[in-house]
């Protein structure tokens, strides 16, 4: 290699490193925001004088806006340029984060969170597309490992960081924390990311976008509001479900009959990408549904403080990072489908262990199962992203990235809704079953009364019994939720055999 070639290779390597750092900052900033605000909600509720139903709109507005705007990423990047769209998204997300922290009323913070969702929708898919284009095809595994660290670890560490900021500073700092990330990301993107060619010939399919936006928006509203409104006993939920089904059905028909559809149908003719969409949907369910269950289980039933919960759950993120780095180093040397299969087995084993949890389970056991589960997710995410995009044409990557992220987010929303509903219903069912044993003919209860442990002859004694029954009923419901998640993971195993192996020796696009 000549001196000139060596210098050129060094410059390209430095360029890739700086591009990676820049887009990773934007990815982490957006990924953190999906969960960091959840911890601060009770503090916001007190500061704003809002009810539980009203304060939930702080989360709902962000989720719905991001879901609706995410599919726009492909068209907007083609029309205005990927770098320009990325810069405006980073600026908008950072500014609206500051506005959220400065909000003085409920209406203000809901409006600013909605705008934050609009600007944040493009950050993750754009970062994935830029990394795929910045690295040659044989290094896509390493690129996806670095990108995956931000996407997967952000939601895991979000509650921990949110708990620390809220506990020792103020809930407003869960939004102000985005400012340094946003400034550094903007500087890096401006300096190192290259602009893409514009395509002003592609027409905007407004009707297709409207159908998809209405369908996704109605679906997200139904999932977010369903538990509060008792699902289909509410007219609002029925209308949202009907609108979601109708609009999404019409959208599928539309893109298959329109000459220039909003989403390229060529994406779905790629087997690896189509199977990858189903897979990432299931990963979304597993990732955030489990994280939605553990904090309340540990706080409400096991008596842990918020900060302690964050510290116990944080090692799960380290397990994910370690496996992602390992997979990145072994990319191209080992069949990625083997990583995915082993990752699923690790998640299944950790979920099975979680079905054995009791109120006396130690923090060490929770950490160990969390690390195993995080390692499983790390083994799945990087190879899955690599395989899903391995056979796609380069010009479809940005649009494919937005769909990939959208399906993961929808999977997370559906997973959280399912486990929350399942938990509520089974807590009531378990309570009714356990309460049947509280009767004068129960020998164990008679012995407990004789020993003075419980009393059925006083209001205080009955209240203590009911508290014990309620605690055990809720504990059993959480274990049943963990078992449900285990079976969802088992159901994903056959999908591994539907994936095709990418060609490791393929040339750069």
Describe the structure.
The protein has 509 residues and is mostly helical. Helix content is 77%, strand content 0%. It contains 20 helices and no strands. It has helices at 3-33, 36-48, 52-55, 57-69, 73-80, 82-102, 106-120, 123-134, 140-168, 173-176, 178-192, 206-225, 235-255, 271-301, 306-330, 336-354, 363-390, 397-435, 443-450, 459-492. Helix 18 (397-435) runs antiparallel to helix 20. The longest helix is centred in the last third of the chain and has 39 residues, at 397-435. Mean pLDDT is 80; it is low at 504-509.
Contiguous low-pLDDT stretches (5 residues minimum) are: 504-509
Count every beta strand, where a strand is a DSSP E run of 2 or more residues.
0
Largest sheet data: none
Q: If you compute it from the alpha carbons, what radius of gyration comes out, rounded to the nearest whole angstrom?
A: 24 Å
Q: Tell me the span between the first and last alpha carbons.
A: 23 Å
Instruction: Give the overall shape, derived from the CA principal axes.
Output: globular
Secondary structure elements and pairings:
Blueprint: H1 3-33, H2 36-48, H3 52-55, H4 57-69, H5 73-80, H6 82-102, H7 106-120, H8 123-134, H9 140-168, H10 173-176, H11 178-192, H12 206-225, H13 235-255, H14 271-301, H15 306-330, H16 336-354, H17 363-390, H18 397-435, H19 443-450, H20 459-492
Helix pairs in contact: 1-8, 1-9, 1-11, 2-9, 4-7, 4-12, 5-6, 5-18, 6-7, 6-8, 6-11, 8-9, 8-18, 9-15, 9-17, 12-13, 14-15, 14-17, 14-18, 14-20, 15-17, 16-17, 16-20, 18-20
